[in-house]
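Structure tokens please, single chain.
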Amino acid sequence: MFRNQYDTDVTTWSPAGRLFQVEYAMEAVKQGSAAIGLRSKTHVVLACVNKANSELSSHQKKIFKVDDHIGVAIAGLTADGRVLSRYMRSEAINYNYTYESPLPVGRLVVQLADKAQVCTQRSWKRPYGVGLLVGGLDESGAHLYYNCPSGNYFEYQAFAIGSRSQAAKTYLERRFENFTGSTREDLIKDALIATRETLQGEKLRSSICTIAVVGVGEPFHILDQDTVQKLIDAFEIVQDEAPAAEPDAGAEPAAAAEEGEGSGAGADQAAVPEPDVAPMDI
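Here you go.
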């Protein structure tokens, strides 16, 4: 994208019918660290990648609790996300105080989208440079929404936003048909694998990712690092054992070939696993 005469403020249309300031805000979401959401019939899992400016600093918080039944993961400008999460928290408290019942997830998402849309129609404002994955549970079931800086919102079975999120989307697109009937543990596993897909070869550790869960009988909460690391270790062990079983399956044909043709050396070479394959490659 390059600066042009139609991007000086958010209310100026280009001849092609585009609002460049809104598109720039959507580009800021793509530059942020990845955030991932998945839902089943009973649970919603949010995951994000933690980025630190340097080894001496801590990472910025990317997942926020809105209410006991709603949480949000953000990608983009963290300051904007913090302000919007505080607005969502206030709306949830006011609704609960007025109606003495939890705020429906869909209603909160519409209010949030309306707030974002106002910033695309006022010349003295700028769009929020953050995308939000809103996950929650209400009387109609589990929900996962994506709120865009343009004021649009969409409901998903699973979605990923932020930098290098396309790799996570590819994994989720292959698996999403199974998410509806997935258990809590399976959703967390898929969230961790999708998060790993965005790291481009970097080893997945609990220090660089955050996982949050909300479900039936389980209020929204963020899993502690020790629990996440145990889950990562368990999944890596399972995936280490799966490739190791493949050479064993071909052991009998190799032995038969060795007896009949004397080609044992070729069979040994075929049974050696590739050294560069990562343990969690999908």
